[in-house]
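Reviewers of the previous submission asked for a worked example of the structure-prediction workflow described in the proposal, so we include one complete record here. The input consisted solely of the amino acid sequence. No template or homolog information was supplied to the procedure at any stage.
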Amino acid sequence: MNIGILSLGPKLYSTKRLLEAAEKRGHKAEVINYLKCYVNITSHKPSVHYKDRTLNEFDAVIPRIGVSNTFYGTAIVRQFEMMGVYPLNESVAISRSRDKLRSLQILAKKGVGLPVTGFAHSTDDTEEIIKMVGGAPLVIKLLEGTQGKGVVLAETGKAAESVIGAFMELDAHILAQEFIKEAGGADIRCFVIDDKVVATMMRQGKEGEFRSNLHRGGSAKVIKITPEERSTAVRSAKAMGLNLAGVDLLRSNHGPVVMEVNSSPGLEGIEAATGIDVADKIIQFMEKDAKPGNTRTAGIG
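From that input alone, the workflow returned the following structure tokens.
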């Protein structure tokens, strides 16, 4: 199989591991900087170009699309889909997962456990939104935030009103969510491939930090999850349409609740914490599933 890894750099840990895993299993693999690709949108013969080449040799692509590049990155993935190239995760599924509001609405429709969440446009509704999510303390999130950026814990109602008001003054879209105090600043990352949880870790925020992101100094350890947590992670990935997903859960008093479904989960933390060769499992799945034109949407939508 000839695999294109759509990534900004071969030195990134996850990219490097996928490249190694593909070559170890006898495949040809190449890292393609998707921001340097350009496309020819034409009837019956769509194409993707890179530097002075037409990229028509790939059987499959692995999208490693950065959050800030979602629009352009998914456009490139969609073009490959229209050419009949198999994507590990499809463009529509990536777009769904990157839109925090849309993803929560999809998960809610599927009956997946979520923190109580409020969304509004007008500051006139601030007081009601705060009440809706159970009052202070509550979490306020920028829809465009990632890796814990743009996430604020408001300890009091007044603080929440000030933060929400400030964000809205900047014309930023925000979510207000109930604060799951009993989680103790820890979350669970479930790595899902092909509707199966293949690796799990608990991430604990550093002292005084309610966010558990490893990028923010959190630590990780192996954890055994419950059948309900396993089912929640699998259902969440499936609802997004993702073959590969990192599903982040919190343990609440009313069962597992999903915080986020990540379409390009990093491999470094999960492989270091668990010792599991996740990159190899990804390539194994692609060997089974990667067939020409095997996409649900064929680049449409």
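The domain at 2-89 is CATH 3.40.50.20 (Rossmann fold). We consider this example representative of the routine output the project will generate in years two and three.
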